[in-house]
Amino acid sequence: MPIFSAAELKRFTEEIFSAAGARAEHAAIVADSLVLANLAGHDSHGVLRIPEYVRWMEQKLVNVDAALQVVLETDAFALVDGEWGFGQVMGRKAAEIGVLKAARSGAAVLSGRNCCHLGRIGEYPEMIAELGMAATMFVNTHGGGKLVAPFGGIDRRLSANPISIGIPKSSGGPIVVDISTCSIAEGKVRTMLNGGRPVPPGCVIDANGNPSTDPAALYGPPPGALLPFGAHKGFALSLATDILAGAISGAGCSRPDADRVGNSFLLTIIDVDRVRGASAFDEDVQGLLEYVKSSKLAPGVSEILVPGEPERRERERREKQGISIDDNTWRQIAETGKRYGVETGTPA
Questions:
Q1: Would you tell me the crossing angle of helices 50-58 and 6-20 to the nearest 10 degrees?
Q2: Which CATH fold would you assign to the domain 69-276?
């Protein structure tokens, strides 16, 4: 299992996308986003995605010349269209537009469509929270990325439909909630398949609806399905997310005739300083965190962590010790790079 520094991963990731036809500035953004996901410990949304993204480029499913278009705009709202460009490029640009609107109006809502895979959704609310604003983001897959069985069913009907929330605080980095509405993200199942590891119980069913810990059961043939987390609760959140992301933006919700996978989203941003006052808001947040962390610990637990803290600690560890890539994933990346004459480097 090779280990790389973040800088080395970023270098050859950027080179692969550039060699495959991406504009230099877009290749840099996508590379940065993927490696940030690896640093945070979310390998499912990291450089694992290189071969998949390059295949999409080869199939002309990524518009390398895309620029984010504002289709409809008011003082505190914008509907944006990514023209099927790289999701990380369009997501960051949409967040920037939303932050400017929220700074002027106190709050802003961005609805977006026609973006390729946005990557780790937590990146965008986290970026916004680091600027002192609170954000929520609901994302679907344009109706095409059906992976999840509804509560009570066994057929794929919904996508992972992630939800992310970023909340600023004065010290230690923002609170970042980043969850899919299914029991496990598909990318994590893929990392388990590549790494020869079982899927935790209660996450995957095979094509006949039987529970399975074999990651191959999801992919088939015939393919199985992911389960919503928390049974009916995750199903309810997934359904609402699909509507908020897809029906408002015009991208559409999960449906049988949708086969192109992309991301649409609903992003809400609140300038807490303008609406409440940063100090007063932070006092409430810090007070809550102190109260939560003061709980007596369960057996075997040494510390209560809040969302965002595990990722920051993992990033500190990986920045020092490097990022490990399983052998199968590394082979796929190296083969992709070789097709475009890119030397993927020697592990650290």
A1: 10
A2: Ribosomal Protein S8; Chain: A, domain 1 (3.30.1370)
Domain ranges of the chain: 3-62+323-339, 69-276
Span 280-288, average pLDDT: 98
Mind listing the pLDDT tens digit for each residue in 306-323?
A: 999 999 999 999 999 999
Is 132 in a helix, a strand, or coil? coil
DSSP string, 253-319: -S-TT-----EEEEEEEEEHHHHT-HHHHHHHHHHHHHHHHTSPPPTT------TTHHHHHHHHHHH
| pLDDT bracket for residue 149 (50, 70, 90) | very high
Look at 348 and 190; give whichever has higher pLDDT: 190
Task: Say which CATH architecture domain 3-62+323-339 belongs to.
Answer: Orthogonal Bundle (1.10)
Note the pTM of the prediction, 2 decimals: 0.95
Question: Phi-psi category of 73—alpha, beta or left, where left has phi over 0 and alpha has psi -120 to 50?
Answer: beta
What band does 343 get if pLDDT is binned at 50, 70 and 90? confident
How many residues make up the chain in this entry?
Answer: 348
Q: What is the C-alpha radius of gyration for the chain, rounded to an integer number of angstroms?
A: 20
